Amino acid sequence: MPDTLPFDPSRLKFGIGQPVPRAEDPTLLTGRGRYTDDISLPGQMWAVMVRSPYAHGVIRGIDTSAARAMPGVAGVWTGADLVSAGYGPMKCAMPLKNADGSPIRSTQRLPLATDRVRYVGDPVAFVVATTRAEAKDAAEAVELDIDALPAVTVASAAAAPDAPQLYDDIPGNEVLDFRHGDREAVAKAFAEAAHVTKLSIRNNRIVVCAMEPRSAIGSFEDGRYVLRVGCQGVFGLRNQLANEVLKVPPAQVRVLTGNVGGSFGMKANVYPEYACLLHAARELGHPVKWTDERSGSFLSDQHGRDHEVEAELALDKDGHFLAVRLTSFANMGAFLSPVAPLMGTANFMKNVQSNYRTPLIEVSTRSLVTNTTPVSAYRGAGRPEGNYFMERLIESAALEMGIDAVELRRRNHIRPDQFPYSAASGSVYDGGDFTALLERTLQEADLPGYAARKAASEARGMLRGRGLGNFLECTAPPTKEQGGIRFEEDGNVTIITGTLDYGQGHWSAFAQVLHQSLGVPFEKVRLLQGDSDQLIAGGGTGGSKSIMASGAAILEASALVIEKGRDAAAWALEAAPSDIEYEPHAEGGQGRFTIAGTDRGIGIMDLAVKLRGAQGLPEGVPNTLDVTHVFDQAPQAYPNGCHVAEVEIDPDTGIVTVDRYVTVNDFGVMVNPLLVAGQAHGGIAQGIGQALMESVSFGEDGQLLTGSYLDYALPRAGDLPDIGFVSHAVPATTNPLGAKGCGEAGCAGSLPAVMNAIVDALSGHGVRHIDMPATPERVWRAIHAG
Fold this sequence. Notes:
Blueprint: H1 25-29, E1 45-51, E2 57-63, H2 65-68, E3 73-78, H3 79-84, E4 116-117, E5 123-129, H4 132-141, E6 143-148, H5 155-158, E7 174-180, H6 183-192, E8 195-203, E9 215-221, E10 224-229, H7 234-246, E11 253-256, H8 272-284, E12 288-291, H9 294-300, E13 307-315, E14 321-331, H10 343-351, E15 360-368, H11 383-401, H12 405-412, E16 421-422, E17 428-429, H13 434-444, H14 450-459, E18 463-472, E19 481-487, E20 493-497, H15 506-518, E21 525-528, H16 546-573, E22 580-583, E23 592-595, E24 601-603, H17 604-612, E25 630-631, E26 640-649, E27 656-666, H18 673-692, E28 723-727, H19 745-762, H20 776-785
Parallel strand pairs: 1-12, 10-11, 14-15, 20-21, 27-28
Antiparallel strand pairs: 1-5, 2-4, 2-6, 3-5, 7-15, 8-13, 9-10, 9-12, 13-14, 16-17, 18-26, 19-20, 19-25, 22-23, 23-24, 26-27
């Protein structure tokens, strides 16, 4: 029977809220993606880095003579060569201050080490040759004369008076002594509390392990530096590279990015290799390519996490929260990345509040340099950690006070009638429904059936535990973002954005926003995101803000297209602009301009074609519907939710199996629920990996002991359960779409859910806390120690 229902925009197949499959996937799944290593330029040469084998040492000399004489070698450069060329250092851009008001002590990292090496993998030279094999052979022939020095790899150890000093101008290895909160008021709250819970928590260091290792091609074309590289945003990377390192106007630098195989924060910044490639390309007159091997990635890619935390929660006699206090050491690695100090300071502070009424927060973090790979953002960048600390404190406090842990959460949730809620962290939450969301999660997790499942596990000699991960995270605030719309000659419409998809599926989601707001056919939408020459603004992708930033930019740009289109349609239809109306979803598959009260009109795609071929347009009639627009900014948003994990533990081996997993989430308006669920699944997988198996280890001499997949475990499909995903949405009021961001929330809920479940399962053996990762050995020892 034919569909005779009247047209309803809510039935849009490709509109906002529809689970549209990713438009990117057919290309990627059939191997037609174009990653950096897939590119080969005419005349291209290869670079290989020479890295320090010592974690700490003084460079006495670098002999490159043998390498220069080897077949195919076009050049060998050291740090002295790049200093002579005038390149500047990479440094931290965070405007954080010490407790005494003085600025952060930033390291000044040159592209190649010149005086001292500070971690295993620190680049000291590089070789360029005709082939990769020739470059690799020559790199191995470079002779290093380095006097080894004592090393320090743990942040708290770096703070000791007798610790090795990495920098003469950074006394005590301390780059930042961060403090937030009213110390006296917090101390008073703890002194007067009926109960205080304390936990020592280790936030284990993580190797990012992106699917695509870092790769880049440097060239010098028509007097400009051109870098082809996988990154998280070409506009910001170009500016950092031009302003800080190359010391040239940004217009002299172009950054191009194709497909990117994952990043999670790691590929956001400039790395030493990029300046080296561009320098060699200019010197040699040839493009120069470099692709890291996985062993090199373990050493040179920025790591994530790595904090030592004393967490404390003060409660009154009824279990109401009075104050939370975090006292931490944060490991920065050997150099400060542009955002390294953010995670253990401001992001701890903003996120430890979670969705609870907590009147007072104090965060004191000492950030220290160590002889380890530099640390930077990793999915969540302090947000999952803040939630993890609070949730572990709640579980411990509930046990110690004899209060049900779920009831303790209910008792302290921010209530709907308290919004907007001014948190002690300084955030202003615009809305949420935290207790109702928790209740929905318990329902979805089949709370009544848990006792039977636990009994069944015990009958098989297994331990079973259930854990909650209630979370709220503060996304990064959307900053200036481009929302260009261009009507192409081939009939397609291009969105130009400064965010960048490195696995998220931006094309589909952005096309849905444009389709909904402007009526452009979904299949006609294209996405341009990886060319800095096309951008006038761009905040890149990070902090779970892309749909809020780019979505808002597309909405505003669409409104400008319609405004231009009224003048153009008035000309085409021979009417006054004031008589022109626009219907984004008129029947016929495209938006349509019409004369009010008539059936005379013209489709937006047809109007774009008509303008392109028009000659001698009257004054006031645009010759194109194209717009270039910059969305200004918006407040951050507050995605929240609850995860429930059930684990089963074999007491004979310590092996933990995540058996059941349910999530209920408030991500506000979901443009594409299918993509949102995928983002949640990915974050949960990474959270389970950190909770159960992932951890970086260094020897006392600074050597990386977990330098390959023989030593470093990643979760596989068989390690993960089916993941239930349910939405309990309260639209945000802080951005036009009502979205809240979702990219990092999976980690924020999974770390506490899994670890709380493990502690619950082990509680019968006297275990009250266990640090991540809960490896079989660590769990087995905890059982027997208990």
